[in-house]
């Protein structure tokens, strides 16, 4: 339900704010809202935790799931930030390094480390990287989905 609500709300907000997006940008932003909002909620459920952290799932599986989300960052850098490679390099490096840290610390430290990284990611988005107009929510939602909802076992 959260993903559907986000996918309905995002185009309405974008159109009411008269964001200078073309139809491709609007469609992609809507898809990101659907994916990230749904992923935050779904990946935090006990069923998803059991599935993603079942026996046989390794660092490589979890890291691969996170790494593929670099495509989100690449698309934002390209389509919404005019080829901002500083944004892409910084955010993707932070995503990969942060995920590696969460996956390698002792299990008891996973949640505090994930929340620390989420907090640092918020500071990046507020103070180090100018926000992406219309997608100000994008980085916080990405960090929340991956660092806190996905990577932490039950």
Description:
- The protein has about 150 residues and is mainly alpha-helical.
- Helix content is about 75%, strand content about 0%.
- The mean pLDDT is about 95.
Overall residue-averaged pLDDT value: 95
Helix content: over 70%
The description of the largest β-sheet is: none
Shape: globular
Provide a compact summary of the structure.
The protein is mostly helical and 154 residues long. It has eight helices and no strands.
Considering the chains and any ligands shown, give keywords for the structure.
single chain; 154 residues; mainly alpha; 8 helices
Q: Topology, pairings included?
A:
Layout: H1 2-16, H2 23-43, H3 46-52, H4 59-67, H5 70-80, H6 85-104, H7 107-128, H8 138-150
Helix pairs in contact: 1-2, 2-8, 4-6, 5-6, 6-7, 6-8, 7-8
């Amino acid at each position: 339900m959260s993903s559907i609500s986000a996918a309905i709300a995002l185009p309405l907000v974008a159109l009411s704010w008269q964001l200078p997006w073309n139809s491709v940008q609007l469609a992609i932003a809507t898809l990101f809202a659907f994916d990230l909002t749904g992923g935050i909620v779904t990946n935090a459920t006990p069923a998803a935790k059991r599935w993603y952290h079942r026996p046989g799932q390794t660092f490589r599986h979890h890291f691969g799931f996170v790494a593929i989300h670099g495509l989100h960052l690449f698309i934002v850098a390209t389509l919404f930030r005019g080829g901002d490679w500083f944004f892409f390099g910084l955010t993707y490096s932070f995503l990969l390094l942060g995920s590696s840290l969460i996956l390698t610390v002792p299990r008891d430290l996973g949640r505090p480390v994930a929340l620390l990284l989420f907090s640092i990611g918020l500071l990046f988005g507020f103070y180090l990287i100018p926000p992406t107009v219309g997608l100000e929510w994008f980085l916080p939602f990405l960090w929340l989905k991956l660092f806190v909802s996905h990577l932490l076992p039950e």
